[in-house]
Amino acid sequence: MSDRKQIILGAYLGGVNHQTVWSHPDAGSQIDFSSFEHTAVTAERGKFDFFFLAEGLALRERDGQVFDQDIVGRPDTLPVLASLAAVTEHLGLAGTLNATFNEPYELARQLASLDHLSGGRAAWNVVTSFDAFTGQNFRRGGFLDRSQRYERAAEAVALVRELWDAWAADEVVADKATGRFLRSGDAGAFAHTGPQFDVRGRFTVPRSPQGQPVVLQAGVSEQGREFAAATSDAIFSPFTHLADAQAYYADVKARVVRHGRRADEVKILPGAAFVLGDTEQDAQDKARWVREQQVTDRTARILLEQIWNRDLSAYDPDGPLPDVEPDLDAPSFIQGRALLDPDRRGWVARLRALAEENRWSLRQVVVDQFTRTEFVGTATQVADQIDTFVQEGGSDGFIIGSHLVPTGLDEFVDRVVPLLQERGALRAEYTGTTLRDNLGLPVPERARGAVLVG
To answer: How far apart are the first and last CA of the chain?
Structure first.
């Protein structure tokens, strides 16, 4: 075994976004099971740690109409992951489930069931929402003020874990003859009273194979970093420039230690896209073509309409940025997309400064600010970039995706993975039996010693 830091790899399948080039002649379906299966099987062939699904809970709208720049239709996360459990053996199965719109009992039961079905490979990406537009789909509107979303999420995660722990080690007994779990004593009993939830009863799912499913989260704000450091097993980082990533990595790891945990008990994983070429110039040319396909005339205007909060269809994408100011008082022109910065005026000022400094058109500004291909080059160059980033403390690995669904990951697995394996930075074979094993995460203390069917 190499003494190099081992790189964690997750794979994501592009869905509702502009990064995926659906116009590509080789693009497949975003809803057929074959697309999910191909990506997951390819990731397992590349000895990835897990497959990741994001989630969209509402059809996006532009000026009150369905957002026709987006694909429409995405199956529910959990049935997809449960189906993938049957066609993979080692790959972790991570799903995004909203803590604002779902009840802890339902979340705990669904994820524990997935963990049993997959033999200990389930993971939950915890997300929150203060979006009243999406909340209209849910009971009582499902709406929370921004200030309350982490309060609810923190209590929801704690309660889900309490439910997973409702079956103590000495209460989980397996009948080897029938394969059934036998309950004893107070197995499954729980009672919780808090600001957000007041529940009691018996949890129906016995202790899962990895003790608890892995908990993932994304957070950049002060509140988000603290939430992740206190409760998560891994955190998705938005930083892909090494200096920024190192600062974020050091900050979060220090917070983890302050919460009484070891620094390596939380893994930090940025998302990343790639473009490979036979030469560096070939890769750069391909990357330029991808960006041009990602930012069509309509896409360029729509991405800025979210910031300006007004109809920009009259503006030429190859002309200057809009000369009007953002409309701060109108209802949201784009519904269902997260606004990354609520300071619209400040955002517009920054974009205008970029355009003036670089003499960029509207489209060029959008390409610079809204497309990302972190790793561009030959297979050797991309392997070097990934390995260097991880070894120098920028992250513990990456969530890798492609502009092409579902076959884009194949090239990475065929050409980059063997190079990472040769240098000892990536496993040649799976050594663990659960996702926790493969990620190097500890089993929760209360779960240690649990007796499970097997």
So the answer is: 28
Residue with tokens 């939430």: 227
User: Would the pTM count as exceeding 0.90?
Assistant: no
- 182 pairs with which residues across the strands? 173
Alpha-carbon distance 217 to 236, whole Å? 6
For residue 89, CA distances in Å to 11, 39, 318 come to: 16, 14, 49
Binding site residues for FMN, as ranges?
96, 150, 221
Binding residues: 96, 150, 221
- Per-domain residue ranges of the chain: 8-279+373-447, 296-370
For the cut 60, the answer to whether the pLDDT of residue 181 exceeds it is: no
Task: Look at residues 17, 19, 41, 15 and name the one whose alpha carbon lies nearest to residue 273.
Answer: 19
φ, ψ for residue 300, nearest 5 deg: -60, -45
pLDDT in tens, 43-101: 999 999 999 998 777 667 676 676 655 555 678 899 999 999 999 999 999 998 988 88
| CB-based burial label for 294 (10 Å; 0-12, 13-18, 19+) | buried
Q: Is the model's pLDDT at 454 over the cut of 60?
A: no
Length of the chain: 454
Q: What CATH number labels 8-279+373-447?
A: 3.20.20.30
Phi and psi at residue 69, to the nearest 5°: -75, -25
